[in-house]
Each structure stands twice: as structure tokens, then as C-alpha cells.
Design goal:
Elements: E1 5-9, H1 13-25, E2 28-32, E3 58-61, H2 63-70, H3 75-79, E4 82-84, E5 87-91, E6 97-102, H4 103-110, E7 115-118, H5 119-128, E8 135-136, E9 141-145, E10 156-160, E11 167-170, E12 172-175, H6 182-187, E13 195-206, E14 216-220, E15 223-229, E16 235-241, H7 253-261, H8 268-274, E17 281-287, E18 296-297, E19 300-302, H9 317-331, H10 338-367, H11 372-388, H12 392-395, H13 410-415
Parallel strand pairs: 1-2, 1-12, 2-8, 5-14, 12-19
Antiparallel strand pairs: 3-7, 4-7, 5-6, 9-10, 10-11, 13-16, 13-17, 14-15, 15-16, 18-19
Length: 427
């Protein structure tokens, strides 16, 4: 029997997770990556800015994403290179705390902790689980024909737009080509593009800090700052601010952060002092403008930011892409009915991800409040709620972080981790 073929467009976290999951299911997979370097190599833009050990960004991995990675036998490897957040605080720029949570509360509520890893580590780990030659770098791709998913119907066609314009065919195409997905536009040309969420984000990784500090997120007028540890002692920091889209600081993004956050509480000034100005990443934040008609068309499936970009306020962008990939591979049996599998994928993933998008956007809007009375009201509500409901910070993830993949995981079998079946509305 001929081995079915799959092409994955995009070598980021979602694309590589899909490639690993499909490979484990028996598909012959090719990953087409635009960057000139492979995802596991220093210098790949999805891994870091300026090399895997310099700059870059972190990623929060909630229990839902870790359980999905467990189905690929990859969960323990990333746990070994991720930091558990023993305690976390929500603060004001003065340093006054509004709410606190801890690792044990997340385990009680969701069956596991929330971890923070370097994106480069997760990308390298996933890429290493693929057969040699799976990832083709310097291969920007365009969809030529989505094909027809019925058995025996025409395959999908993809053209590598660099070089000689090589054309490939596949039984399945997975588009993980990011927020400004060209594949999404080709599948649904009349659908509105993602819209600017009203704020931009900065990210950086800096060396270990000498002074003691606690992981925190700090909300101030029109923006926020977050500081969290990585497993090796380095620090992942992020910030957002309500500014017009497309902006760039004339004197550099580090200088912009210093102006906006340099007088906020410890350890923020120390983080800025330790940062490499050239390694600060800045990106406008986008979110879904309207729910898509579907997550698939023909033989093409969309996943991650290509179909449900969301604000970072729940830390679920990468987590939902990982979920997408695992669910898609679970549905797409190599010898099964692809049309039925892709329809089930849309039915399962569209309502769930749109709910996550909505929740993240609601929180994102709260962080853009600027006026002094509005910020005082926000602080009072958060402080009061944290007293009445100590796990208020975690409650935003109810129904999200407690998700389990459609199949039991090796980690669940070994540790007795909760692995409830998917709710019926997602079957």
C-alpha cells in the first residue's frame, strides 16, 4: 500500500508538532520552511533572534499543551528543559501585589503545572524527532490547488516559490504559515484578515539576575510587564503597550522599553540593564477579526496562528497550535476517510479556539486601560477578587488548561495524570 504524503508549510512550533504527530501516524511528511536555516539550527527566526543561545523568547506551556506533547513522547523532554513557576504575582508598577498564585494551585486545578521554556529548545526538540531530510529550509511555498479530499480525487499542489519553482503534490497539506497566512487567504479570499489588537509586544531573554525576585506580571497604565525564570537561570521578559501599529523606536526598542518601564518595581530595571539591546523583539499583536468558515478546505488544514491568531494574555497561542496538531493527526488516519477527518477537525477545533481567542482578547483589552480612575478601579477589583477567590489568576484558564488529548498519553499511564475524554461537544 502506498504511504500517504503530507506537506507542512511552516517550521514553527505548530508546524513541527504537526509533522511529528503525522510522522508517528504513518504519513510521509515534508516540512517546507521559508528561513534559510532549519528550525533546529541557531539563527532560525522561529527559534530566536541572533542565535539559539542569544535573545529569542520564551513560551508558556500549560497542562493542556504538555498533555498533547505527551502523546508524541515529547513531554518529558521539554519538562526537563522548562521551569516550574513556584509562585507568581500580579502587581502594580509600585510593586504592590494584587493577586498571587502558586504551582500547587495549578496542579490542583488543571492536573499539572504551567511551565516556561525557551522557544528555541522546544523547536529543536520537535525537529530532532523527525527523520533526516524531513525539513527543507529556504523553501518558501505557495498553495497552487487545495485538491479534493474525497478518496481518489485530485491531490493538493504546492509550489516552492524560491529557486526553480518546484511543484509538489500531497495527499494532505497542513498550513502553519503564521498570522499573515498566504494559504488562508488562498482558501478563503473573502474572509477578513486578522486585525490589530490595539497593542504591541516586546520579548527578550536575559542572563540570570543576581538579586532574588519572584515571577510576576505587572499591570500599569496602557500596558504590562512580565518577568519569569527559565530552567537554566536565564530570565524571560515580555511587555505590551497600547500604541499605534507599525511603530518602531528611532533609538531602538531597548530604549523604548527603558522609557516606558525603567522606573517600575524591582527586578524590571535589573532586567533592562542585563538585556542585549540588539536582542529585543518587537511585534504588533493581532487577533481574529471574524471566525473562519472552517479550518480546512479540500485537502488543506490550517492550524495555529494561520487560522486563530490570539492575544498573548492567556499564554495559549502556542498551546492551541500544539493541540491543533495533535488532534489533526489523531483524526487523519493514513488509510482513513480524509474528507471526514478534516470535517471532524474543524468541528472539534473551531469552537474551542474561538472561545480561547475571545477570552484572551477580553483580558488584553483590560491591560490597555490608561486613565488613572480606570486603572484604580481595575486594581481594586483584582485585589478584592483575589481575596474572595485566591485562585482568580488561574480561573481564566478553566476549561482550557484542563483539556486532554483524544488519546491517553504515555505520561498519563505512567503517572496517573488526569486524562478525561474530550467533552462531547468537541467529539
Amino acid at each position: 500500500m502506498r504511504q500517504p504524503t503530507a506537506i507542512v508549510i511552516g517550521g514553527g512550533i505548530g508546524g513541527l508538532t504537526a509533522a511529528v504527530a503525522l510522522d508517528r501516524r504513518g504519513w510521509s511528511v515534508t516540512v517546507l520552511e521559508r528561513a534559510a536555516t532549519a528550525p533546529s539550527e541557531p539563527g532560525h527566526p522561529a527559534a530566536s533572534a541572533g542565535g539559539a543561545r542569544r535573545g529569542g523568547a520564551g513560551i508558556g506551556l500549560a497542562p493542556n499543551a504538555l498533555r498533547a506533547l505527551d502523546t508524541l513522547a515529547a513531554g518529558d523532554a521539554i519538562r526537563a528543559r522548562a521551569a516550574r513557576q513556584a509562585t507568581g504575582e500580579l502587581r502594580l508598577p509600585s510593586g504592590r501585589w494584587l493577586a498571587r498564585t502558586d504551582d500547587a494551585a495549578a496542579v490542583r486545578r488543571f492536573g499539572g503545572p504551567v511551565l516556561v521554556a525557551h522557544r528555541a529548545d522546544l523547536i529543536a526538540l520537535l525537529a530532532a524527532r523527525l527523520p533526516d531530510g524531513t525539513v527543507r529550509s529556504a523553501s518558501p511555498a505557495a498553495l497552487v490547488d487545495p485538491g479534493e479530499a474525497a478518496s481518489g480525487a485530485r491531490p493538493a499542489r504546492v509550489r516552492i516559490t524560491g529557486g526553480e519553482g518546484e511543484e509538489l503534490t500531497a495527499d494532505l497539506v497542513v498550513a502553519a504559515d503564521g498570522i499573515h497566512s498566504a494559504v488562508r487567504r488562498a482558501l478563503f479570499p473573502g474572509h477578513p484578515a486578522p486585525r490589530y489588537a490595539g497593542f504591541t509586544a516586546w520579548r527578550m531573554v536575559v542572563p540570570a539576575l543576581d538579586r532574588p525576585w519572584t515571577a510576576h506580571e505587572t499591570w500599569g497604565p496602557g500596558g504590562l510587564w512580565g518577568t519569569v525564570p527559565l530552567y537554566d537561570g536565564r530570565v524571560y521578559a515580555f511587555a505590551t503597550a497600547a500604541v499605534p501599529p507599525g511603530g518602531r523606536a528611532a533609538d531602538g526598542e531597548w530604549a523604548e522599553l527603558l522609557r516606558r518601564f525603567g522606573d517600575w518595581h524591582h527586578p524590571i530595571p535589573d532586567v533592562l540593564a542585563a538585556a542585549d539591546p540588539a536582542a529585543v523583539l518587537r511585534n504588533d499583536v493581532h487577533t481574529v477579526a471574524a471566525p473562519p468558515p472552517a479550518f480546512h478546505r479540500g485537502r488543506v488544514a490550517l492550524l495555529g496562528d494561520a487560522v486563530h491568531p490570539m492575544t498573548p494574555n492567556l499564554g495559549q497561542g502556542g498551546c492551541q497550535a500544539i493541540e491543533d496538531a495533535v488532534v489533526l493527526a489523531d483524526r487523519a488516519a493514513p488509510d482513513g476517510d480524509l474528507a471526514a477527518a478534516l470535517a471532524a477537525y474543524t468541528r472539534q477545533r473551531l469552537p474551542r479556539t474561538m472561545e480561547v481567542v475571545r477570552r484572551a482578547e477580553r483580558i488584553g483589552r483590560l491591560t490597555t486601560w490608561r486613565s488613572r480612575p480606570a486603572c484604580a478601579l481595575r486594581a481594586a477589583l483584582l485585589a478584592t477578587t483575589s481575596v474572595l477567590a485566591p485562585d482568580v489568576v488561574l480561573r481564566a484558564l478553566d476549561g482550557i488548561a484542563d483539556w486532554s488529548p483524544p488519546a491517553a498519553t504515555y505520561a498519563a499511564e505512567a503517572r496517573g495524570t488526569r486524562t478525561a475524554a474530550l467533552p462531547k461537544e468537541h467529539e
